[in-house]
Amino acid sequence: MAYGMQRVTRHALFMGLGLFSLGSMLSSRRFAEMLLWAGNPIFGAVGAWHQDQRLRKTKPAEFYEQTSFMPFRAILDGRQSLSQVAAEIPAAPYVLALAAVLLAYAP
User: Whole-model pTM?
Assistant: First the structure.
């Protein structure tokens, strides 16, 4: 039932935004910057929770038993496999993007 990134987390966008903003907030030197970044982790957590509440009406219960709210929780608990994630998400686009960035910024 779960496929690709959903094996890692049900809310990749919300969790990515929240973790990035949390890191930015913790590395801020000014209080105003900290306040600027503080809203996004809250938005990510509330948005993911709200999406779960909406989708529980349409997704089967097995989907929620197999996946996790927090990133990598289902993999660490043994409900999912990282090898399945690697097999379902093709590496070629990411390798090409990395190569393009390295070529663009190489001296």
Answer: 0.74
